[in-house]
Each structure stands twice: as structure tokens, then as C-alpha cells.
């Protein structure tokens, strides 16, 4: 069973620490490890069968509690069935409606429309008929999109007014964008679940029997203590467990609410404002871009190459193109391509998505690799504990019924033929109770739940550090991350962009908004390109308010520059008609539009990466507006004008500026008139005329250099993967410390995406290891890099914000999406959302990930010490003397300290800087390290030795020979119990710092730890001094207390001395596994 204590079988190639061994042995070990149900490398994409296997293999006494935060496989299947039913239901409604409509047309009748829409000329029933049934005829009867907008008192361009009274009115008539959610479980449910533990049920039955027999044999005055004390101890365990679990549940509920609360832009009163998805109302006009989630049911107002992924609603992974002939948009779907605006016609429960979400309860359960491994550890310990308990039960029963068990006064407890049946049964129940209580202590039900506890705590704290965890497993996996592939823009930089350089008309403008040097023709064409070829917008408030510019940071920077050049945004856009749009594409690094002017002249405008757009240009516009041909060899050194543009780009890139080129061309051919042909029309991108090249400054984030240095110290390599020019990427990488000097900025440290993707798979694996910066990369290049690094054995974290980043985010061990710039598609594919888009927050996630792992290890060390000590003490005492020094009630109290309170104290330790001064925890590394084995064996050996000496020689050592035998025995057992509990309290401090000598460092920062230790100490004093009747203890004098404290205190200096003992680097399990296999092979 030693493999249960082991790390994941995922092996790193060329792992020097693993030592040299034969390939056959490696392969055998891999097969051996992978056969274990408790070795799941990553639960991110684990099969249902694999998840089911480890559940069935685990030894569990309370399944409802043990598996509470894991994925409910039965519920997951039910959820899929409900989903299928709702989809079928929606399709049946549509089919029935179409059938009915056909019948009405045949009979020449029309369906009377309801018009009870309050202040609005359209009712909710009519809207439902139009949108949910995709009824194009009903939409046309309402006057199309314009007629529907008028009926809803909204404008397709400016949206609703959006004041409070307007919003309230719309919510009253059409409902709000919320749906009834199933309530979380109440505290009483958690109390009921805590009852389900088999051992606790047996103990309650034993307590009831003990109570009945005690009253019968000793009378009600004295006979009720034993039974009631066990029952009370069990109740205390149940209540404390339920409270702890209920608190965790509330934390998860709050985090789930945060995950669902998407923020998006709507147009209200002509301006773009950001609102919560819950605040959207019918009549709202919403801009849609690639990667957005459709937040409500609606009708398309305008769209450019708009494609929607409706798989979340229809179940079919088919991309649907939206146009005026197919304008219906369903809530919950994703924008796969293009852009557009929609008119909201249905919200909340009046949408299919709302019906769906109201019908299913979201299962937040998810196993983590650590949880699965801990179930393996718990199962192994449980089997050992169960075996020990059975052994104790058999030995004590044999001793009891053979007359070898004596009372404290020396009299034999059971005499065959003389002892009454009720007395014999009472004696047997007491023995059985002790055996069952040993099982309670030995089977660590709380061990896997400690993962959930520390994750719940960490997730709450990470929210304050601007990281929203979507998948629990990512929290702990981040602690093992060996490399982070980070975006540049917005993550390493501030994402606050301004145009600082501009080359227009073949000359540099100084300052960049010096419009005096531009001719009217050039200025007009440039402003047209800036205003029309954008996803952003400009809002000019009435009066003297500041102009509001919205859009992506790059778009905003260029629009602000255009305004400084004298652009009137609305006027320019009204002077020409948008014919076709090619949205910005991260593969091609450019976006374009086709415009038709009032004179019917068609212009194609392009904007994108400077050197890519420049490569498409054959001419440029000079300062006077004249079109001047560029030499055909414009990118060669002998072309002076081309050299000027090339040098301009290189100069700006070297100063870490993002270079964007703006170009256009007239289009003399006929534009496709048919909508279908227009959608398939590819905008011409050759023979362009260069208008301008601008340099946009996006400064590095303050503190990012320190954050990267911290990662490097922690053994985590940071790689920059950006779509920007290689020179810009190099300049930023040098500035923030990813590259140490110019000497490092050589291939393959610094590589272009196209070069990397041209290599074979084997070459990519070799080169991926060396890459520090990848420039001009496409999302597919990022995916290839992630795959290559993972094949090399790395645990890879990836940041991403675009829709095309989704595959890389999904493929990576940890996908980190950006909360501000990230699309909904990117967020849904990610495991953690970085709310402030800041790289420093990514580093904080690494700290928390390491903290989760470290806290679990602290708890395991503490719990195993208690397990080992309690089991050995009771077993040795039971076999040798027929009596156990720790009775059922005392063991239940120890279990409470060890399990629930211990988990609360140790699993909530905040992360320390020490965690970032050691290498990542490898997936191969064992859960219980050699350091932990050393610590727990030293402490357990000390406790067992001292307490067994007290058990057998206590009366002599404590000078109790002359006392009453019963009283002397009780004093001895009370001191053993008291010293044992105090040892655990003192050892809790040792467990805080398994590999540091100063175990008190930072203890004052964890108030919960101090509070739990103080509460445990106070309750121990109360148990000994005031309620001894229930726990079978007696009051102790100050000398005995001093002795107990002294015994416990020794554990501190002992821990310091123990940490001076060196431990072998080869993990203990590997030593045994090797011996086992070598023995098996010979």
C-alpha cells in the first residue's frame, strides 16, 4: 500500500533527483502507480469511469460527508437528462408553432395577438412568441427590428433612457434577468449528514445500551454517567463538524455568485455603460464582440460576419451565422466570430437559458488531485486502524471472558457462572465501545475534507488578492507550476495606451497630433479610417462634459489620437455606409472595413500590425495627399522610402512601443449585393496605400520586475508570449526582467511564432525549454508551446484573454484568464480569473497554491502523529493489561482536536515568503515527505514511550502506591489523558513549520490558530477539573498539571533537535517500491 502515500505518476524527463535506473524499472513503476485508483495526475479532464473507480476503492464511514465537495456523478447524469428534455421541449414547441401557423395560413385566419404590455405596445407573450419560437413572421408583423424597438420605447442606436423609473417599469412588465435558484442546504442538512457516520451511529447505540444497563445495575443516580457522557461527546463531534462544514458551504455559495455575475457593456442614452448581467432589461441595446456571452434573448440589429456558437442550448457543436433573415439570438450562447448589436426581447425565466438554469442545480463539486490522493491515504490508515480496532476488540473480549480482566481493586470482572448476564453484557459493550472509538480516531474522515477547508479559505483570501478561482483543483495545481506563459499587454503592462509617435504622409509628426502638417485629403482619409475601422465608440455629452471614449485600450488610444487630429466621430460615421467588416483577427493581426461614400465610391480600410500591413502596401500617401508608389523591393535596404518606414517601425519597437499601421485602397469593382455573398466576400488586402504608422506606449506595470524575480527565485520560469512585434517584445522583456540582457535576446530564447510552428514536434519540444520570449505569435503557437512544455514534464500555467486563447487555456494545467480584458469564452475555458489583469496577482496565486499544499502536509503530519500515538498506546495497554488508558469519551475529544479543530487551525495558515524560496512541488513528490516522516515518528515515539511508562509504572513514579487502588488508577489514567492532549496542543505548533526551527514565526498573524489552541486548552482544563464524572477523570493537583505540561513541553526542544537529523533525499516509498520490484523481477 506504500504507493498510496506517493505523488502523481506524471514523470519529468531527465529528472536528476530520481537518480539513474533502468528504463524497464521506470516502466514497471509507472504501470504500478497508474494502476492505483488514487493516482490521478489531473482531474481537469479525468473520465467519469476513473472518478468512479477511486470512490469505490476508498474506505468510507460517512460517504455523504466524505464525497460532499466532489463531483456528484449521479446528479451530473440527471443534469444531462434534464438538459436533453428542455432542448427537446423547446424544439417541440417550435415545431408545434410552425404546424399551427401553417394551419392558420391554409384557413386564411390569423392568430389574435395579446397586447397587455402595460405602457408598452407589445406584451411579454408576443415577445416570447417572436424570440423563443424564432418566429420571423411575427417579427415582421411587429414592423421588424425598428417597429419592435419603437414598441419597446427604445432606439436601435442609443438604447433606452436607463433612468431608475424606466428600469423599474421594464422589470415590472417584462421581468428581471434573474432566475429562481435552488436554495443551498440549510444547517440542519449538514447536521443530518454529520449523523450519517457509521461509527458515530454505533457509538450512539452503545451509549443507549450503556445508559440502560448502567441505570439497571447502579441505579439512576450513578448509572447514567457513562451512557450520557458518550452520547454527549458524540453530539459535540456532530455539532462542531456540522458548523465547520456549513461555514465552508456558505463560502462556496458566495464564490459561485461571484462567478455568475458577469459584467458587460450596454448602450443607454447613447453612451456605453458597464452593468451586471442581472441588471439587463428588455429594450436594452447590447454590443456583441468575439468571445462574448449572449446575456439574454434578443434580435440582431446590425451584424458583421456574426457567428454564434449555440451548442450550449441546442447540444450541437454547430456555428450559426446570424443575419437579417436569421436574427434570433439565444441567451447563454457565445459569439464565435464577428461583431454586432442586439435588442433584448427576453430576460430571466422568459428565456430558454433561464428555464434551464432554474431546472438544474449547479453542482459545484469537483475532486482535486490532492483530494483523491488523500482518500488513498485515509483508506490506508483506515484499514490499519480497523485492523487494530478488531485486534483490540478480540484481545479484550478474550481477556474479559477468560477472567484475565481485573478491576482496579484487583477483583476479576467476569467469573463464568457467577457474573450476571446484564453485567457481562455491560462489560462487553464497554469493550466494544472502546474498539469502535479506536476506529473513529483511526479512520481520518476529515483528511480529504481538510483539502476542501484549506481551498475554501484560500479561495476567499485569493478574492482579496484579485483572483477568482473557477476550478478548485487549479488552486493546488498552481503550487506545482514550473512555468508561466504570460501575455504581454495588460498583464505585464498597464494596458493604458497612448499614441506617442506618428509617421504620417512619409514624415514623422512632432508632436504626434500636429495636424497642421497634413493636407485636407490625407487628413480626411486618415480620420475616416480611424472612425470607421473600429470597434470602439465616442460619446459626446450634451453641454460641456468630457468626451467618453470606449473600446479596447488600443482602439481607445487611436480614437483619442483621431480626436486630437480634429475627428468628429459621429459626423464621419454618418458620411459613409458600412458595407462589410472583417473583424480584427489574431491570426492575421489585422482588421478591415469596406465603406461606401455618399458619391457611391467604395473604400477598403485596413488597420493592424505595422510590418504586416506595410508588407501589403505598394504605395503611400505623402503630406500633400498625393499617392506615391513604393519601390517593389520596398523591404530591401536600397529602397529609401521603404527603409524609412522599416527604420521607423524598428525604432518605435526598440522603445517598447506597439506599432500599428493604417492603410486603405479604393475599390472599383462591384460589391456583392446579395447578403449571403457579402458574408463570404473577402476584403482585398493587396495593393494598399499606407496612410500612417503610429507608436503606442503601454508602460510596464509597477512591481512587475519584482514579481518576475520572485518567480525565478521560486523555480518558476516566466515566458512572454505576445502577438506584438519581436523588437517590442524584446524591449518589454528586458524592461521587466524576463530577459537579463541583450546577450540573452538571441534565438531560441527570443523567437518568432512562425519560426516555432515550422519546427517538427521533436524540435519544438527541445526548443520550448529554452524559449523566454515569443513574438508575433498566434493563439495556435501558444497552444503548441503549451503542449511541448507539458510533454517535457512541466506543469504549465497560461494567461489568455481572447476567444482564440481558449484551446491553450484548456490544454494548460492551469488556465488564467483576464477579468478586465478577457472575453467570456476565455473565462469559461480558464480555471482562475485574474480580476485586475495584473501579473503580480498571478504570482500571488502561485503563493496560495503552494500554501494549500503546505497546509495539507502540516495537517497530515499532525493527524498521523495523533493516530500513531493513540493506536499504539491503546493496543499495547490492551494486550498487556486488558485495560485501555484512553476511554471512549476521551478518544472522541482527541478526535475532535485532531480532526475538525486541527484542520481549522492548520489548514488556514496564511502563505509565507518562505514558500517562494524553494522549488515547485513536483507531481512525482510524495504527499508525506521524509522530513514529515522524521518529525511524526520522533513525536509519536516520544509520546508513546513516556505515556506507556506512565501506564505501567505510573503508580510507582507518581507515588500513588498507598492510595486507594481505584483512585490511583484514575489519577494515573487522567495524567496520561491530560499529557496526551497537551502533547497534541504543543505539537500543533511544531506542525506549523515542518522544516523550520522557529515554529512560532508568524503565529500572531493567524488569529484562528491562536483561538483554537486557546479554546482547546480551556476546554481541557474544564474537562479535567469540572466534568470528570463524564470523562472518567479526576481533578489533578498543581504538581500533576506541572508534570503534564512538562511532558508536553519537551516536544518543542525535541522538534528542534529532530530537525538537525538529516533525511535521505530518496523518498521512503521509492526505496520500498524499488526493493519490491527488484525482488519481484528475480
UniProtKB/TrEMBL annotation:
Coiled-coil residues: none
Main subcellular location of this protein, as a coarse class: membrane
Extent of the signal sequence: none
Enzymatic reactions: Ca(2+)(in) + ATP + H2O = Ca(2+)(out) + ADP + phosphate + H(+)
Keyword Electron transport: no
Transmembrane segments: 190-215, 227-246, 377-401, 431-457, 1008-1028, 1040-1061
GO CC terms: endomembrane system; plasma membrane
Region: Disordered, residue numbers: 1-28
The Cation-transporting P-type ATPase N-terminal domain, residue ranges: 141-215
Chain intervals with Basic and acidic residues compositional bias: 14-26
SMART domains: Cation_ATPase_N
Membrane topology summary: Multi-pass membrane protein
Gene3D superfamilies tied to this protein: 1.20.5.170, Calcium-transporting ATPase, cytoplasmic domain N, Calcium-transporting ATPase, cytoplasmic transduction domain A, Calcium-transporting ATPase, transmembrane domain, HAD superfamily/HAD-like
Single Gene Ontology MF annotation: ATP binding
Family matches, as PROSITE patterns: ATPASE_E1_E2 (PS00154)
Stated name of the protein: Calcium-transporting ATPase
Species for this entry: Linum tenue
